[in-house]
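Researcher: Here's the sequence for the chain we discussed earlier.
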Amino acid sequence: MYKHDIKVSVRSVLAALLLVFFTSIAHAQDEKMIAEGDRRARGIEAKADRRFAQQDFDKAMQIYETAFKDNIQLSPSYSATLHLKTARLYLTLLEYALAIPHYDAAMALNDDLFKASDICNYLDALRYSGSKMKAIGIARKYAYRDAYHSDRRYQNILHALNYEDGFLPIGTPEFNVRALEEVNTVNSEFWIGEVQDEYFYAASNSRFHDPYKKFYHRTQYFPLISQGKSQLLDKIPRAMQNGALSLSNDLSNMIITGVYYERGGSIGITDEGINTFQTKLYSSRYNSRRKGWSSFTEVFPGKENYSYSHPFLFNNDRSFLFASDRTGGFGGYDIYVVHWDDEKNDWGLPVNLGAYINTAGDEITPSIFQNSLIFASNGHTGFGGYDLYSTEYVDGEITVGSLVHFSYPINTVSNDFNMVRIDENSGYIISDRNLSNKDDVYYFDRNRSFGTASMSFGGVSGNQLFFANLFKFPAKDQTSGVPRVEELPQHTFTEPVLSVFFDFDSFDLNGKALQQLDDWISRADLTRVESFLIEGYADEFGEEKYNLELSEKRANRVENYLNSSGIKTHMKTIGRGMIPLLDDLEGDVSLNNPESTVWDKPVWLTKDARRVDIIATIK
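Model: Thanks. This is the structure I predict for it:
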């Protein structure tokens, strides 16, 4: 019996050793196959990059797709990176439906690769392709992670998802907006310029379409109003019609946007972002004797890793504005100003316009009208995508407190950018609100029933941005013909004050919440506060309608307590409903917790969702 046990034991050991041996061989073979798969896929990727740089987009995307065939085994890390890159490139072609599966695959493999801009682009692809409910699900998943809670572009997309059909006018809108069907096509009409009262636009016949609206390829300029042959456009070399440009009033100086070609004549492609091409600014002077332009020279030479675009000459052509992602900014593209240096007989050093204008998002298409700086931003509070803003700009100084957001229908939940004013009552904008096209030219004029402009800068009236989410909607009995003038806070800076947490399925303030509120009230400096926004939330247990009502009750309970404690500052309460957190959990979760419920779900893990946030709008 003893010898038999030894034999069995030896056999078991041998079997285990053989299993380990063959498993290690199989694992080594798998690693070899994955390494070979990555090598083959990188070769495919390089070939596709070259095709994309040559603008053979259909062929390029077909080649990228071959890297994901079943007979090529990729490592999870490289597969995720390549899926994300492919999704980004599909987005530049406005192929939303084709981009989405690659976003899905990359997220499933490694969502740590996603930057806030990627999540925003993913959500845009979903909502533009009609997958609104999926977009809402993903938006909820990320909404209360720190990086996204403070990301203004992301928050604007959340608003856009709530108001996808646009903002209904409260009474008569200040401006009428109509598409210029005589110039708009299925291609991108992406920019408008003006010199000596002649308006012209740039159109791109390339499929490439930068979602950030910073650069377009294969472009040409056309007169906005057909007046026969344009002497102005005849002066601009066809090879230099690459994007936004600015001409001096006497037509003697020109600053243009040009594509930056790397060594070998191919356009560099980066997998770090969606900006496939880099751009630079070039300047030239017109020689009246030779009747031609001088050689184009770089305005900011040697800055190879950054892009520059959207020049705008002003101040008697001695200054110009531009947008750039150069280092030292606030994030993304910022707006800069540069002045002519008489001693050097050249442009001086760029100066960032500062945090009142520039944000962690992107600011583009600057222009000057009277004493106003007009620009587009996806980093300020807005309706979604790029929105148009105006601020007072006098003697080279920004007037703090003058930032204005143009009302609907100039701004929508889509991208609205590049405003050119004709006068205080009319002008042009570019927008991609018509999803059947790309970017289109729109004309706007003041609604006669609205009245005259009530502000000195840019002719923008008081019905601007619903800052700090303090939305005011029309009352049911409001007459539709009455001009809409919302009562708005005058300042745009908001600051999180306090988060108060609640017990499960309760809107009563518990002892800890009361202590938090009392401590804050005793030391709060209310002289700096214009108003409070009180937002209530609930966890994902229960019906959506019930949780929405519960979140509203929580917000109201906090408001009542603050009022009863003597705080008279204006308050706005809103219930946001439920926040799903359980989807973010990984692996098994122990339920050895007194708050566990009969549903066998970890209620204690959703405590962060059962809360009220108090947000102050600062004077």
